[in-house]
């Protein structure tokens, strides 16, 4: 028998995916790459349904996982940080926005490990009171933010701060990463510290030093684990933090 940490991973509304037919029944979905990366790091991914109308159930759910992973996806509705959406903002996935913001705040209050990836990092920032660039191309001069390129394409390097948690995992000041976003952190939320920067100055990594584990990265490490052990190491570090929690499940084995 083995004890396996359980990582809650939020889903997205099926109809928030481009190309899904209007006639398709409503549903929830999650990217396989996140599940596979967590599995490679020794954890079981537990997909979380979008149920913002049931805060009691969300609170109970947080009590049954060892960590929370907030993945990438479509744009967060700017009204959540007090701004009107620009024309470039994608149609919102409101159930996802509300579910993730509630879960992150619960996790931060309880000291539950949280890892935010791409949109997940942005949502972590907004949950802590920060704001976003709604459209990077309109705010920052850049050459590499393009979601049409292959998901494992290394677009630029991130300059890591030497005293950060991510640096202690990757052990390099210049980390090559992919880049699949058009929104980004603008002002940091309460308690968050920027720990990695793109060449144009955008925040690419952040953490809450006073929290047991609250980390956000702007790139997609789940797409790079096959060819870069440092990316797998980010998930291993997260799972190790989660193993300090009390909720575990037993799975069969010899």
Your description of this structure?
By secondary structure, the chain is α/β, with parallel strands linked by helices. Helix 2 (55-62) crosses helix 3. It has seven helices and 14 strands. It is globular, with a radius of gyration of 17 Å. The mean pLDDT is 89.
**What fraction of residues sit in β-strands?**
15-25%
- Structural category: alpha/beta
User: What does the largest sheet look like?
Assistant: 10 strands, mixed
**Mean pLDDT, rounded to whole units?**
89
Order of helices and strands: EEEHEHEHEHEHEHEEEEEHE
N- to C-terminal distance: 7 Å
From the alpha-carbon coordinates, what is the Rg to the nearest angstrom?
17 Å
Contiguous low-pLDDT stretches (5 residues minimum) are none
Q: How large is the count of helical segments?
A: 7
Count of extended strands: 14
The helix fraction, in percent, is 25-40%
- The best one-word shape is globular
Write a concise keyword list for the protein shown above.
alpha/beta, single chain
What is the secondary structure topology, with strand pairs?
Elements: E1 2-10, E2 12-13, E3 28-29, H1 32-40, E4 44-48, H2 55-62, E5 67-70, H3 94-110, E6 114-117, H4 119-127, E7 132-133, H5 136-139, E8 156-160, H6 165-170, E9 174-177, E10 184-185, E11 193-197, E12 203-207, E13 214-217, H7 229-242, E14 248-251
Parallel strand pairs: 1-4, 1-5, 5-6, 6-13
Antiparallel strand pairs: 1-14, 2-3, 7-10, 8-9, 8-11, 11-12, 12-13
Helix pairs in contact: 2-3, 3-4
């Amino acid at each position: 028998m083995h004890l396996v940490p359980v990582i809650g991973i939020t889903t997205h509304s099926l109809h928030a995916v481009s190309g899904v037919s209007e006639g398709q029944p409503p549903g929830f979905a999650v990217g396989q790459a996140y599940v596979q990366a967590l599995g490679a790091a020794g954890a079981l991914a537990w997909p979380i349904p979008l149920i913002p109308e049931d805060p009691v159930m969300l609170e109970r759910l947080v009590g049954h996982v060892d960590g929370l992973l907030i993945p990438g996806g479509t744009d967060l509705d700017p009204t959540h940080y007090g701004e009107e959406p620009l024309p470039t903002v994608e149609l919102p996935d409101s159930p996802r926005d509300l579910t993730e913001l509630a879960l992150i705040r619960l996790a931060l209050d309880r000291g539950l490990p949280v890892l935010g990836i791409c949109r997940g990092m942005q949502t972590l920032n907004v949950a802590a009171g920060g704001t976003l660039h709604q459209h990077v191309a309109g705010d920052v001069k850049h050459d590499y933010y393009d979601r049409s390129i292959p998901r494992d394409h290394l677009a630029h390097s991130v300059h890591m701060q030497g005293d950060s948690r991510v640096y202690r995992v990757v052990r390099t000041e210049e980390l090559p990463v992919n880049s699949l976003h058009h929104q980004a952190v603008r002002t940091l939320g309460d308690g968050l510290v920027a720990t990695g920067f793109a060449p144009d100055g955008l925040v690419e990594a952040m953490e809450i030093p006073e929290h047991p584990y609250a980390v956000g990265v702007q790139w997609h490490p789940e797409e790079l684990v096959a060819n870069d052990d440092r990316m797998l190491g980010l998930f291993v570090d997260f799972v190790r933090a989660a193993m300090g929690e009390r909720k575990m499940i037993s799975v069969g084995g010899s």
